[in-house]
Amino acid sequence: MHDGQEPATRAVRLGTRGSRLALTQSTQVARALEDAGAPGITLVTVRTQGDGDRTPLRDLGGAGVFAALLRRALLGSHVDLAVHSFKDLPTAPASGLEVICVPRREDTRDALCARDGLTLEALPAGSRVGTGSPRRAAQLLAVRPDLEVVDLRGNVPTRLARVNGLATAAAVGTDEPVAPAGPDAQGDLDAVVLALAGLRRLGLEHCVSQVLDPEVMLPAPAQGALAVEARAGTLEEHEDLARAAARLEDADTRVAVTAERALTAGLEAGCAAPVGAWARVVDLEPGTHDPASGPAQAGTGPATQDSRSATAGHPSVSGPSTAPGRRGSPGAGSVARRELVLRALVSSPDGQRRLVRERRVPLPGGRGQGVRPQGSSAPRTTSDLVTAENLGARVASVLLEDGAGELSDLQARRPEHPPAGLSGPRQD
User: Fold this and answer.
1) Active site residues
2) How deeply is 173 buried, as exposed, middle or buried, from its count of CB atoms within 10 A (0-12, 13-18, 19+)?
3) Residues with Cβ within 8 Å of residue 124, at least 6 apart in sequence
4) Which of 142, 188, 225, 344 is the most buried (most CB within 10 A)?
5) How would DSSP label each residue in 248-265?
6) Nearest Cα to Cα of residue 275 among 380, 399, 148, 165
């Protein structure tokens, strides 16, 4: 892999933001594509509007602010590829661009990074916990309304440095100068909440004091997943790149994030809406029940059943979501039954009222048919993606019918009056 501003001869140019996390993610994807047979890849740093800007994210324009200039660079043929954190991409299609590859997803869960190794339950009353996400803020306050949730900006090392005692542990080298929203400070917080996937990619998992179960903290839609984007038609021009992207593609991840993003689109959720979602593909033996689900319901009222669903319940997650469900072992000559399970949350900003709904549907594709040399457990099919989109839209409809719009301004982008205990929520 070539690293520099000028592309090498015949190299594919991969645009990336300049933050440590973005560079790390882009480097990992570039190496994986090269290992899968792609031509040499050059990293080209594109400085986005969000980098180095103290403006609150909600005022910068929401979920697409970090993707906008990368997309302009793609459309202007300044770069050939871009790697995005999938949760940062707007759900509306971008004309002239396509997501050519979705690699295997990292752990979807959030992590608490607290002083003295404290857990969420052990934090003293009145502890100051930092997050830039209204989703995280609402769920924190749902279980610990006595906490002071503090608005937070900055890249991962910057945020970790705000925690008392973690500044040294978080030092990973020079990062892009994305400053906190308030005056520069170190050690002024008791904890921060961050995505576990980013911490792992940066080698900062040692800063985690507690991985938060989805029962407590449902992740953001598409959290932990990456999207490799290119101009439409790029794969037709670069056959080696097309083959490499196909090998790196993880079909189960693509299907899961398709459902989550369809939910977001169906809710028309803005960057300041406390919305969480987690989808997973579960392989089952014929006639068995997903062991990750139970009969209990959550939320402000009972969840109505979709006609295609089996049961709606709480997933019990003890391991990373890269292994999203306990897999069955079908007998000789049988085809594993595959289901897509989607759990979603809409909360009031203060976390005191919430709707949680879960639905599951069978996936048309069977496991073990046409598996790619590298990548997912099953080939992605158009019917699987249509099923995922329909499931996301259905769960969004159920949430809206059950009063999600009364809990929160789902289109919120610039909340004028933050709830008690908050100092201005922002997107993930």
Assistant:
1) 88
2) exposed
3) 190
4) 344
5) H--HHHHHHHHHHHHHHH
6) 399
pLDDT in tens, 83-104: 999 998 999 989 999 999 999 9
- Mean pLDDT of the region 215-219: 96
Q: Which positions ≥6 away from 349 have C-beta within 8 Å?
A: 134, 137, 138, 274, 408, 415, 418, 419, 422, 425
Report the DSSP beta bridge partners of residue 112: 193, 210
**Are residues 251 and 368 in contact, defined by beta-carbon separation less than 8 angstroms?**
no
Report angle CA 399, 227, 138 to the nearest 5 degrees: 35
CA dihedral 349, 88, 218, 130 (to 10 degrees): -60
- What single-letter amino acid sits at 202? L
Amino acid identity of residue 279, one-letter, is A
Cα separation, 92 vs 129, in Å, equals 33
Q: How many angstroms separate the CA atoms of 202 and 372, rounded?
A: 29
**pTM exceeding 0.70:** yes
Instruction: Lowest mean pLDDT of 6-10, 62-66, 336-340, 387-391, name the range.
Output: 6-10
- The whole-number average pLDDT for the span 166-176 is 62
Taking alpha carbons only, the member of 215, 178, 202, 207 closest to residue 191 is 207
| Across 28-52, average pLDDT | 85
**Closest by CA position to 306, among listed 387, 241, 366, 384:** 387
Taking only the tens place, the pLDDT of each residue in 123-139 is 999 999 999 999 999 99
pLDDT digits (tens, 9 = 90+) for 237-251: 899 999 999 999 999
Amino acid sitting at position 86: F
User: Please, are residues 346 and 354 in contact by the beta-carbon 8 Å criterion?
Assistant: yes
Q: How far is CA 378 from CA 310, 313, 327, 338, in A?
A: 22, 25, 13, 10
Provide the sign of the torsion angle of the four alpha carbons 20, 25, 30, 35, taken in this order: positive
Alpha-carbon distance 310 to 338, whole Å?
Answer: 12
Q: Which two tokens stand for residue 65?
A: 């602010």
Element (H, E) at 242: helix 239-248
